[in-house]
Task: structure prediction
Amino acid sequence: MNKKLGLEWLKASYSDILVLEKIVSEDFITHMTSFHSQQSVEKSFKALLEYHSQAVPKKHDVLMLKDKVEKYIQINNEDLLEDLNTLYIDSRYPGDMGLLPSGKPTQLEAKEFYDFAKHSL
Result:
């Protein structure tokens, strides 16, 4: 077991939560709130895999990661997780970062993503 590396993943996830606490109420940057929420969830899942001595994929697909961690935790809102999964776009164009297929997340969506991320840590 590499608990130390698992702890580092959790610290990285918590860093995203700290950023989220500062920006969650900002309407102009809901896409960034959503993006950091996705990042926090991803890192939490990777921490869990590391803790249980499982291979940690170098992928950003939270649905794939969910499949790997669901034997350790229960995911209650898979629809929200599917939305979060669409937020990570491996792109060089900052305008694409943190966008849903329908465009910039609403304040309500960003808050839901934040709450989900906060409770996944």
Observations:
- The chain has one domain: 3-120.
